[in-house]
């Protein structure tokens, strides 16, 4: 059982004080917040590619690295990082070959039905309540467009200071190579990227 393996490992981890190299404060040392995808390939690769170490940044992970609602939990986390945790910069980092660019909302809904989690009547009731499930489950067609939409949402958010740079990058999930889409410093100065 995976849970028992984790708990056993953790007991040894704590007993052997293996946590010591990871001790840090809650304030990000590099004063940055990163919004990126939850893709398993990026768990270690993204921080290494950015030269981030424990305590350097606030890293928010979400499907596709997307911010789906201007007052949802990801945006709340960004606002908190800026005002309460001294983050001075925001990085929106998507990645090539993202599963959300190949999402299949109809297929996901069928899997929900197949597992017996919901019935067609329940899905209809959710739709009737105003939730477009296919739209909600859909990712995006193009990672660059998705990153730009996220940048626009953050930059134009009424609670984000206008002097906070919002950068946009795409990472290669195999090599860690970063492609710069939007230089937030230039954007603050009115320079087109």
TrEMBL record:
The keyword Zinc applies. Zn(2+) binds at residues 37, 39, 95, 98. It comes from Neobacillus massiliamazoniensis. Its EC number is 4.2.1.1. Its cofactor is Zn(2+). Binds 1 zinc ion per subunit. InterPro entries: Carbonic_anhydrase, Carbonic_anhydrase_sf. Keywords: Metal-binding, Zinc. It comes from the Bacteria. Pfam families: Pro_CA. SMART domains: Pro_CA (SM00947). It catalyses: hydrogencarbonate + H(+) = CO2 + H2O. Belongs to the beta-class carbonic anhydrase family. One of its GO terms (molecular function) is zinc ion binding. This is carbonic anhydrase.
């Amino acid at each position: 059982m995976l849970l028992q393996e984790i708990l056993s490992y953790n007991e040894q981890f704590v007993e052997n004080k293996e946590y010591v190299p990871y001790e840090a404060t809650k304030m990000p040392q590099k004063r940055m917040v990163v919004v990126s995808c939850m893709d398993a390939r990026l768990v270690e690769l993204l921080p290494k590619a950015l030269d981030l170490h424990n305590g350097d940044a606030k890293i928010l992970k979400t499907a596709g690295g997307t911010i789906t609602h201007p007052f949802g939990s990801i945006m709340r986390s960004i606002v908190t990082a800026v005002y309460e945790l001294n983050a001075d910069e925001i990085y929106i980092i998507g990645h090539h070959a993202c599963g959300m660019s190949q999402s299949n909302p109809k297929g996901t809904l069928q899997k929900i039905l197949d597992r017996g989690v919901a019935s067609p009547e329940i899905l209809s009731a959710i739709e009737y309540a105003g939730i477009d499930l296919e739209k909600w489950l859909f990712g995006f067609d193009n990672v660059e467009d998705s990153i730009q939409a996220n940048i626009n949402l953050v930059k134009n958010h009424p609670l984000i200071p206008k002097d906070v740079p919002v950068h946009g990058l795409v990472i290669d999930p195999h090599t860690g190579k970063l492609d710069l889409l939007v230089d937030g410093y230039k954007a603050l100065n009115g320079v087109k990227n």
